[in-house]
Amino acid sequence: MNSSLLMLWGLWDDVYQRCTRLRYIEKGANIFRVVPLRYRGETLVTSDNQKIYNGDLIVKIHIHNYYFATLCKGVKDDLRLALLLRRHIMLSLPKLAAYLETMAERESIKGIVGTTMLHKGVQPLGFSISDVPMNWFFRYKRWYLRLLLRIVHPDGKRRVQTWNHEMPLKRVYMSKEALLGRYGTNQSPTGDLH
């Protein structure tokens, strides 16, 4: 991504941040932005057999795409991009756990839930994965994420065309207990990945 496009995206991201309820975990140092809300969808069963029901309070997690784009500037190799993303997710999860522990809604929160096309390799980190219904909202979100990939990735146009059917939109989620157990204050910085 060239510098002028990145600068414009930064301005848009600032406006977007002001217009949404997304909260920074640690601005400029964490890959996640979050918002507490009521989960809407089918019942989710997490890897530790907890259940998240329609209407339960969750922390919706969003990868801060603009921040990640700044980290990726100049990186052209797919493997390096994937490793960079994984590294920053692993570094960000303990801070996400610490943030959740300070939230006023902590006791009512059932887990964390996100929607992404970048779901490969997240299960060893404690996440579960499921399909999303292809309604208008998720169709729009898939289009938007594919547009971001096309912009951020140095070979984005070709990647989007190549991965057209290989990059389904998925829901990734983890129970509050699993998050705090793996990444809470009494755990190692990268959590227990066994």
Question: What are the salient characteristics of this protein?
Answer:
six-stranded mixed beta sheet; alpha+beta; disordered C terminus; 42% helix; 194 residues; two-stranded antiparallel ribbon
**Mean pLDDT, rounded to whole units?**
81
The computed structural class is alpha+beta
Helix coverage percent of residues?
40-55%
Return residue spans where pLDDT drops below 50 for at least 5 consecutive residues: 188-194
Order of helices and strands: HEEEEEHHEEHHEH
Count every helix, treating DSSP H or I runs of 4 or more residues as helices: 6
- Biggest sheet overview: 6 strands, mixed
Strand order of the largest sheet: 1-2-5-6-8-7
Shape: globular
Describe it:
Strands 1-2-5-6-8-7 form a six-stranded mixed β-sheet. By secondary structure, the protein is of the alpha+beta class. It contains six helices and eight strands. The chain is globular. The protein starts with a helix and ends in an 11-residue tail after the last helix. Helix 3 (78-102) crosses helix 6 and helix 4 (136-152) crosses helix 5 (156-162).
Q: Gist?
A:
The chain is 42% helix and 20% strand. It has 194 residues and is an alpha+beta fold.
Task: Map the helices and strands.
Layout: H1 3-19, E1 23-24, E2 32-38, E3 44-45, E4 51-52, E5 57-63, H2 65-72, H3 78-102, E6 109-116, E7 128-131, H4 136-152, H5 156-162, E8 170-175, H6 176-183
Parallel strand pairs: 5-6
Antiparallel strand pairs: 1-2, 2-5, 3-4, 6-8, 7-8
Helix pairs in contact: 3-6, 4-5
